[in-house]
Design brief:
Sufe protein. Chain: A, alpha+beta, single chain, four-stranded mixed sheet
Length: 151
């Protein structure tokens, strides 16, 4: 997929997931949780995971943020349901590599629909917006209560 295709999909997908976020809201029960904060722009999300054995059976979020952070959280939660913790950690590494790599680097197609978020590479200040939910997910799985994009 070339950068022009990613740019067009990026805009459509971001708008859709921002307007109608999937998996938004606090579940009745959960086994893991973490709060994430992006001090640069003020985005704040709380992530809730239900892990059974090593499988993420449910993952939801609530909070507020810009269109990119909300869309990323929405897409991430949709992608991670049913995945193992190891698969989630691998996807975290693949995703963060995609959004932080140079513009001319190929995007790993194994990301599926998440590939559109690689468009933030064109706007470095927005990378932390796209990765906030991902860092919060890692924090929750590590049983840590907070995550930040500050560093």
């Amino acid at each position: 997929m070339d950068i022009a295709d990613i740019r067009e999909l990026y805009q459509d997908v971001i708008l859709d997931h921002n307007k109608s976020p999937r998996n938004f809201g606090k579940p009745h029960t959960h086994t893991h949780t973490s709060c994430g904060h992006n001090p640069l722009c003020g985005d704040t999300f709380e992530l809730f995971c239900t892990v059974d054995g090593d499988v993420i059976t449910d993952i939801r979020f609530e909070g507020s943020g810009c269109a990119i952070s909300k869309a990323s959280a929405s897409m991430m939660t949709s992608e991670l349901k049913g995945k193992t913790i190891d698969e989630a950690r691998h996807l975290f590494a693949t995703f963060t590599n995609a959004v932080t790599s140079p513009l001319d680097s190929p995007v790993d197609e194994s990301l599926g629909n998440l590939v559109v978020l690689a468009g933030v590479r064109e706007y470095p200040v927005r990378v932390k917006c796209a990765t906030l939910a991902w860092h919060t997910m890692q924090s929750a799985l590590n049983q840590s209560q907070t995550a930040s994009t500050e560093s």
